[in-house]
Amino acid sequence: MESHTADLWKPEGDAIRCGLCPHACRIRPGASGVCGVRRNVDGTLIALTYGRVSSVAVDPIEKKPVFNYRPGTLALSIGSVGCTMKCGHCQNWQISRAHVEDGALSDLAPADVVTLARDHGCAGVAFTYNEPVIQAEYVRDCGGLAHEAGLYTVMVTNGYITLEGLDYLADSVDVWRVDVKGMTDEAYRTLCRVPSVAPVLRAAERAKHVHGMHVEVVTNVVPGINDDEGQLRDLAEWVAGNLGLDTPWHITRFFPYLEFADKEPTPLATLRRARDIGVEAGLHYVYLGNVSEPGSEDTTCPGCGALLVRRDGYAVVEQTAVDGSCARCGRPSDVVV
Question: Can you tell me the distance from the alpha carbon of 56 to that of 229, in angstroms, rounded to the nearest whole number?
């Protein structure tokens, strides 16, 4: 695929200042930003991975995980290479830390994304596997065509984006599925080598309240880093107070990996306590992930407790919400069906 000029940058002397993510990289001629896929080529910022993909699959939307938006539907899931973070427990490190020059990419034009989605019975398109923010131009073009075709779009993201970058993407994104890895800058420095959580929180709030996106939050609970009760309570209260009580919070179990291979898996007691903390904060939808815990991924009515969606792994095995309302009491369920 031909080279594609990136957006959201400006010249700065003989360098380029990228405005897409909070790293605000000053990129010298011939160099790339932290993400590895936005390069200064003769004074122009080139999006190296526009239309270049490493991974394409048909997934249940629950695998993202997204539970309260179009449950039971399939999403064409696509990813490329590169990331804005260097998470020490990344399970997709083979692509998030890969480079364009590694030669494992295939061309996939935006129009072909829509065709693939339709051909495989997908109701939506998910940008996932590596960090999709760094493919902003591709996401925007794919998302526009997807919407024209009646497909929804999902960003599975670490949320590390400038407000300008978020506004650039907003019309093309329906679901902002964001990782909030902790509530302290120390946790972010330790887990993913970025200086602050603040940009992630600001972007999520703007996605919800300014752009009307459906937002779901995921926190992978890592022992000794983000598992203390104070931090979990701060996170639950932030979700409740700044995103709304209807915002799903997915609390997932950590397993030893990469730089954190010496740590133990998250104790089940810690996950259960985190769920209790979410409920105490008033959250209506708190889910546990990466565990075999009966009922922990089911959706129930906040009003009467009736089952709305029963899940077995990534599969929806029963769904009783009718037009987004509880079949028993009629309360709006906040589940987009």
Answer: 38
